[in-house]
Design brief:
Elements lengths: L5 H35 L7 H20 L4 H21 L10 H12 L2 H20 L2 H4 L9 H77 L4 H32 L6 E2 L1 H18 L3 E6 L9 E2 L1 H17 L6 E9 L2 E8 L6 H4 L17 H11 L3 E4 L6 E8 L4
Helix pairs in contact: 1-2, 2-3, 3-4, 3-5, 4-5, 4-7, 7-8, 7-12, 8-9, 9-10, 10-12
Length: about 425
């Protein structure tokens, strides 16, 4: 099954909304046009029947798209049908001299933004065919229908509509180009930080391995001392504390290994449920939260969250942001860190808020840059690596600007077990 990225999910949702908006607008405009002709025109042209028939078809397509999650097929056939409407309307209002001819090049433009390349090519070919067809075959002559040139206000309306639609789509194209340039820059930063990312993963795995060896010795010796001093209550209490601390160290080391195993080989994205990931993250940071009197709260608004498989690299991102939040709230009187989990358009959205001071406006754009940090003891790589890791997984990390407290947002595509 093909993985969906956050960009593809949002793009599909946008195109579906654009299709609904386009069909709604076209239906309303055509219906108003039909009513105005019916009310203000001295005689009712037969060409107006084309308008009302087209309006009915568009309304039916609109209902279908709104009731289903699929828009491509419906939009494709609607655009093909539009050629018939344009041909019939142009033939009865002047042929090649009719302003309605201006809609022929607009249809492929709409298709290029909302439909795949293959269907856009078909639409483009059909546009050329219908232009030739309109020049050679006229409904006025072949069916003996009366020709009625468009009124001046109708001509102006057609040209304004064509200009408006083309301008909107061209502006959207420019916006897409800007986003593409941003993505290229993010990929460049990803290359710069990937080597350091791998080094950090290998370092974490190496530390975990080195700690396990003496830890195993401590466990074995503790059991022997306990067996030799089974009657000494003071020694037994000390051994219990040593065993508890050793077990805690073992749990921390295990969490480090669990979260670092995906750093060494990033080509494979291991996935687990959220509870597994969060438990490992919590193990690594709960002690310092407790001793610093920081209220740590998870607010989950997603039912059956554990049925979704989530990349384990999310743990690295969460741990990094939580550690940053820990530093931010230490000097505050009210200390808390809250994690909110929601779903939006087949996307998992995790927001991490803290009671620390809001990030200054001039720093907001810099915090994701590699090696940028306002702390002397930090490398400035945490957020840039986290952002690039999520981007590689098809997700997104950003700092929200319209919130009362400092809030980072993590967005990932959802995938069930």
């Amino acid at each position: 099954m093909q993985e969906k990225s956050i960009d593809s999910i949002r793009e599909y949702a946008w195109k579906r909304r654009a299709t609904i908006l386009g069909l709604s607008t076209a239906s309303v405009v055509l219906l108003l046009r039909f009513l105005s002709e019916l009310i203000f025109s001295t005689h009712f042209d037969k060409s107006n029947y084309i308008i009302i028939c087209t309006t009915i078809v568009l309304i039916c397509q609109l209902i279908y798209v709104k009731k289903t999650r699929f828009y491509e097929t419906s939009l494709f056939y609607t655009l093909l049908f539009a050629f018939i409407f344009i041909y019939a309307r142009a033939s009865m209002t002047g042929g090649l001299t009719s302003p309605t001819m201006a809609w022929y090049p607009v249809v492929p433009i709409i298709s290029s933004f909302l439909l795949p390349r293959s269907k856009t090519i078909i639409i483009g070919i059909c546009s050329v065919i219908f232009i030739v067809f309109t020049s050679q075959f006229s409904l006025v002559h072949d069916l003996n229908l009366p020709a009625t040139p468009l009124q001046d206000y109708s001509r102006v309306l057609v040209y304004i509509s064509v200009t408006f639609i083309c301008t909107v789509f061209c502006l959207f194209h420019e916006d897409q180009r800007k986003k593409m340039r941003v993505k290229l820059e993010e990929q460049r930063l990803s290359i710069l930080s990937s080597a350091r990312n791998t080094e950090l993963g290998e370092l974490a795995a190496g530390i975990a391995h080195e700690i396990n060896n003496p830890l195993a010795v401590i466990k074995v010796k503790s059991k022997k001392i306990k067996a030799l001093n089974s009657e000494n209550k003071e020694v037994l209490d000390s051994i219990e504390k040593i065993s508890a601390m050793a077990e805690r160290i073992n749990k921390i080391v295990k969490s480090m290994k669990n979260l670092s195993k995906n750093q060494v080989n990033q080509e494979k994205s291991n996935k687990e449920n959220f509870e597994y990931i969060f438990e490992n993250v919590l193990t690594l940071c709960e002690t310092k939260m407790k001793y610093s009197n920081i209220q740590f709260q998870l607010i989950n608004n997603v039912k059956n969250l554990d049925k979704y498989r989530i990349p384990i690299q999310l743990g690295h991102v969460l741990l990094n942001i939580i550690n940053n939040a820990y530093d931010a709230v230490l000097i505050e009187e009210t200390k808390w860190i809250k994690i909110f989990i929601n779903t939006v358009d087949e996307l998992l959205e995790i927001k991490i808020s803290n009671s620390g001071k809001l990030i200054d406006e001039d720093k907001r754009e810099k915090i994701f840059n590699p090696f940028y940090s306002d702390k002397d003891n930090r490398t400035g790589l945490g957020l840039s690596i986290s952002k690039n890791n999520l981007s590689t997984l098809g997700g997104e990390l950003k700092l929200l600007s319209d919130t009362e407290f400092t809030t980072f947002s993590i967005t990932l595509p959802l995938k069930e077990h």
